[in-house]
Amino acid sequence: MITRRQFLKASAGTGAAFLTSSRLGVSKAGAAPLPGGTLSPALIAKYVSPLLVPPAMQPTAVIQSRSVDYYVISVRQFQQQILPPDKPATTVWGYGSPNQRNFHYPSFTVEATADRPVRVKWVNELIDSNGRYLRHLLPVDPTLHWANPPGGIAGRDMSPSFASTPGPYTGPVPLVTHLHGSHATEESDGFAEAWYVAAANNIPAGFAQVGSFYDQFKAKAQAKYGVVWEPGSAVFQYANDQRASTLWFHDHTLGMTRLNVYAGPAGFYLLRGGSADLPPGVLPGPAPQPDDPPGKKYYEIPIAIQDRSFNADGSLFYPSSRQFFDGFTGPYVPGSDIAPIFNPEFFGNTMVVNGNTWPVLPGAASLSISVPQWLQFEVRPPQNRLRSAGSTACSRGAAVLANRLGGRFPACARTASSVVARLS
Q: Model pTM?
């Protein structure tokens, strides 16, 4: 199998995203497929699974004289049919509300209103039915500057020393959620060193269970909002004192964000209202709302475009050795400064949109739009509103999608965006 670097050298002339332009959009370039897991993307049927329009999450309660929307949102492990139905299900992580049992990758959407606060209790529930912690789904490199729970209080949030090259970390998984693009104060920001592991009953002796800033922000949140952070959780409050926009939430743990987000936890947070928003009816709708009946048709559609690779058993593939990136076989840490597992860059060979590989969004109209490599649409004129959250594939996916639909995306490599596709 060719390495990632060999692939880039061989395909350098094909252009960004390995696609070429055509009058109606894009077409495939003649490049070799990206290396990945044991399931070839050529064996995955395209435009079979329906596109999920993420439903809106119901608040757990409305508190403080009905002035604050309150959510309890956990991360759990579960199986989801990401590949087409003829392929095995995939074990992933995802956000959901425990009392609603709506865990999904990507998460159901949090709907927020400008200048109306939202309070969220974020819970790490990566434990099994016996209360024991779950190991990571992907290979974790313990030689990086990372959360490092085995280092204990004195050694957390740093790069540890090793006498010999270690294998992957297999202990409890640290998490902390960041709302990307929000005006958040520090105790509610999801700071990378304010992580926490699940409140499991088998945490190894000496392990740090929280990051180096967790206790400081815990005390500040209690003084500011009167909230108590229970073991395995944190309570954040978002003022929503900003322009209406498409935000998204995801894990932010030091040295593990790439792995934790790849495993699934991410979701849309749509902020509406205020002076920067447009009056109802100007942009296409409706969008999902918490009390919608089953089967309702939507014309505002959040779209999370991500790249993943899979194995034949349905599991997620992620490189387990630096060798995958450039063929380097060592010596690794401590014999050099090269980490044994970490890959400086990785692109999946399969496109996943809203939690399904190459889905199709059926509609009632005759207009059908295929976007090679991502998605197939059938949309009703005159227009749909599509929202996209930043991810590995966002910058290339959103640009091609907007071009194909006749709309426009603002830059979205680092921020979230939306496009109105006007069709006639």
A: 0.86
